[in-house]
Amino acid sequence: MTRFLGDLMQLASWRRLAATTLPSLAALALTVVAPPVRAQVVAITGATVHRVSGPPIENGTIVVRDGRIVAVGAGVAIPAGARRIDAQGKWVTPGIFNALTTLGLSEVGRLDGTYDASASGNGNGIVASFKPWEGYNPSSAWLQVTRNDGITTVGLVPSGGLLAGQGAVMALSRDGKGVLRAPAAMFGDLNARGNQVGGARGEVYQRLRDVLEEARGYPARRALVDRNASRPLAARPEDLAALAPVLARTIPLVLDADRSTDIEAALAIARQYNVRVAVTSATEGWKVADALGAAGAYVVVGALNNIPRSFSTLGARQDNATLLHRAGAKVVIAGGTDAFNARNVRYEAGVAVSFGLPWDAALRAITLTPAEMYGVAARVGSLDVGKDATLVIWSGDPFEPSTRAEQVFVAGTEVQGPSRQDDLMRRYRSLPADYRKP
Amino acid sequence: MSLTERLLVPSRSRFLVHAVFAALIPVALAAQDSTRAAVGPGGLSEPNADPFPSTYRAAPSRLTAIRNATVMTAAGSTIRGGTVVLRDGKILAVGANVTIPDGAVVVDGTGKFVTPGIIDSHSHLGVYPSPGVESVQDGNEMVNPSTPYVWAEHSVWPQDPQFPRALASGVTTMQILPGSGNLIGGRSVVLKSVPSVSVRGMKFPGAKYGLKQACGENPKRVYAARGPMTRMGNVAGWRAQYVQAEAYRRRWDKWLADRKGDPPARDLGLETLADVLRGNILVQWHCYTAHDMEGAMEVADEFGFRIRSFHHGVEAYKIADVLAQKGISASLWSDWGGFKMEAIDGVRANLALVHNAGARAIVHSDDASGMQRLNQDVAKSLSEARTLGINVSEEDAIKWITINPAWALGLDDRIGSIEVGKNADVVLWDKHPFSVYARAEKVWIDGAMMFDRLDPTQRWRTDFELGWVPEPAGGRER
Fold first, then answer.
1. Which candidate, A249, A244, A239, A185, places its Cα nearest to that of A220?
2. pLDDT digit string, tens, across residues B30-61
3. Across the interface, do B369 and A304 touch by the CB < 8 Å criterion?
4. Distance (Å) from the C-alpha of residue B201 to the closest C-alpha of chain A?
5. Does residue B382 sit at the A interface (CB-CB below 8 Å)?
6. Can you tell me the distance from the alpha carbon of B266 to that of B249, in angstroms, rounded to the nearest whole number?
7. What's the pTM?
8. Contact B339 A433 (CB under 8 A)
9. Rounded-to-integer distance, Cα B124 and Cα B418, Å
C-alpha cells in the first residue's frame, strides 16, 4: 500500500516539475491539476537570512517548492527552472507572528455587528466553548494592510469573561483558508470581575478552580448530565467539554494577569490542574520572572507600557521583556489586540530591543516562540526545511519604521498588494482627487 | 489665595489682596497683547482678567555645551559635528564651529543626536491621570454640550505619574486639553514637563489659552438623548453659542472702551468665546473627517475666527490643500484609526500628504503612552510617504514634533527650534530620533537638565509613585 502511494507521489512531483519546465499546452493542462503558484520552485538568493532557529546566514539562499522550504543556507544549489528572486542587500526573516489580535474579527472597532471577538454566553463569564475563528472574515480590509507590513500569521484572541473562549492560529493567506490550528489555546482573564465571576481576587481564583475541577470530572458525569440527572454544574456542559484539551495538555491555558500575585496565582492553578500555562499582559511579570522561568511558562508582553494605569499595573516597565528573557521565561511580544494596527507588532519588538532585549530574542518573540506556544512550530516560525515558506523579504532591519516589507510570502504564495489604505493614498496623492479612478 | 498672592501681599483681607493683585496685572498684560481687555479695581466684575498666571520658575541651570552631535535644528538645517551652547535658559550658540565658552559643562554628543524638545499639542495628562480610576476622570465636563466656562488646568493633578514619563521621552511642552465629549469643551493649558506641587508651577508663562471644540461622533453620542444627536445638531450647537458670544463681545467691547456705568453681566463661558472671536484664544478643534472639518471651517468663517489646529484629522489628507490655503495646522497620528466610523480612512501617509500640500503637519499623541514615541510616528509616516514618491526631508519632518506644534500653541517665537535666543529646550538622543532604537538620554528645559537617563539619582518621581510604583531595579533602567 505504501509503495503504491509512494509511486503515485513520485508521479505527481514529476508532473509538477514538468509543469514548470515544459512551455506547452500539455504542460498547461497539467498545471490545472495543481495550483501553479505553489507548484513553482522559487529561489531567494543573496540575502542576509535570519532563520531564527540558527545564526544568520550571509548571502543566503532559500529554495521553496510547493509552498514549503526545501533548502536554506549559503551556497545552496538552485534547481533548474526555479524562479529566482534576487534579494541582494535585503534581510529575510520568517513571517511575523502577531500572537494576540482580533484581526479578521473586527472591522470597525466595537461597532455592533462588525466585532466578533466577544461571546455573550449566559452572562456568567465562562464561554470556553466559544470558537471565534468561525467569525473570521478573510475579506476584512485590515488583512491586506497587515500583510503589507510583513505579518503573515496571527493568533486570534477572544475577550470577555473569566474564560473567554478558544484561540486559533490563522495564516494570512489570501484564499481565506487560513486556519493553521484551531483550537490552539484557551483564553482566560484573571482581571475579570462581575456578578458571577467574582468581586474579589480570591473569589475569581476559586471560580476558576471550580470550573477546572468540574471539567476534570465532567467525562465521568456526562451520562448523568445528558439524562438531566446531575447536580447543577459549575459551568455549561459545552464549556466543560471545551476544557478537555486543556486538561489533556494539548492546548495551553492562556491567562491574562497583571499584578505579580495574579501571575503567581495563574502558575499555581496551572500546577494544581497540571495544565500548560501562558500568561498575557503580565505587567509585573518581571517581579516574578524567576518563577515564570522555572515554570517554563510562555509570557506574552508588550514593550510600550510604563504607566501605572491601574492598581494592578503599578509595576509597569518597558524592560519587562528583557528581565523575563534573562530569567529564562519564554517571551512572546504582542501589543494591542486591535485589528487596525496588528501590523505594529514589529515596531513593538524594536522598542523591546531599545530596552535591553537582545535583537535575536526580539525576533524570536514575534516568530518562533509564539508558534511554539500555539503548537504550530512544525509549520511556521523559523526558516527550516520542511516548514511553510512563510517569510518576508525586507529592505532592512524589520524593526525599523524605515524598513519596508518588499515581498511577503504565506506558504509560498506572495501576498503583498494594494490595500484599501493604498487606494486612498493614491487617490489623494494629488489634489483635487479624481473620484472616477479606482 | 494663590502662592504668588501670598508672596506679594501678606494681608489677611481677601478682597484687598485681590484688588491689589489685580491692579498689578494690567502692566504685564498690556505689554503682551493690546487687544486683551485691561483689568482695573473691582476686577472680579470684568472679563479677560488673567486670574491664574503661571508661577513657573526654571530650575537652576549651568552654562552647558553639547558638542560634536548631529543637530537637527528644526529651523531647516541639520548640523553634523555641531555644538549647541545653553546659557541663562536660552540657546546662546549653535553651529559646526562654535567656540565652547570657558566654564561650560561639556556634554559629549559624539555619535548622538540633538533636537529641540518635543512638543505634544494634544494631551490629557493630569486630567485623565494614572491610575485611571473613576474619581480622577476629570477631562470631560459632560453635563452640557457646551462648557466653554471650564479650564482644563483646574482638573490637572500634578502628581500624575505620566508627567515624568513624558519628560523622560523628550517631551518638554504639552497642551493639556479637555476631552472631546462636548461640542465646546473648555480652555486648554500649556504646561512644561516639570515637577511642581501646583499646576500653575508647570504653566508655560505667558502662553495663550486654547479652546477645545469637538466635531463628529463623540458629542452626538454623549448627548444623543437631549441633543445634539446628529452632525447637523453639532453645527447648530456651535453656531448658537457663537451667536451669543458675538453679542457678548459687542456689549463688553463697548463698555471697556468708555467704562461708563455698570459693566454688563459677566458670563464665564461667553467670556472665553468672546476672546476666541477677538483672536486671543487659539481654537483647537477635534475633527476626524473631511466633511466635519469642512463644517467647522464654515462656522469659523461665519463668525470670523480662525482655527489654529484640527486635531486627529484622520482625513486631513483629503483637504490638505484647503488647510494649507487657510493656514490651519493638522495635529495627527501616524497610523491610529479604524476604531470608529469617522476613523476608517486613516492612512499612514497622512502627515506627509498634509506636509506635501503646504500645510503645517503635527504629530500629536492624545495618549500618555504614544506621547513617548512621537519621533517614531514621524518615521512611520516618512517611510509610507516614500512608497508614494513623496520624499519629505528629515529637516522638514522633525518640524512635525517641534516648531509646528509650537506654532499651534502660539509659542513658535520661543520654543520649537534650536536657534539663538530661543528657550533652551533641548533633547540629546542616543541614536537617530527616527530609529525605533532611539532613546532620549538627556532633556533640558530652559537650559536646566531636567532628565538624565544615566543618572538615576535625579529621577523625578511624583508623590503617587512613592511606595506604590517600584523604582527601576538597581536604580538603573537598563
1. A244
2. 444 444 555 555 556 776 568 899 999 999 99
3. yes
4. 23
5. yes
6. 11
7. 0.90
8. no
9. 27
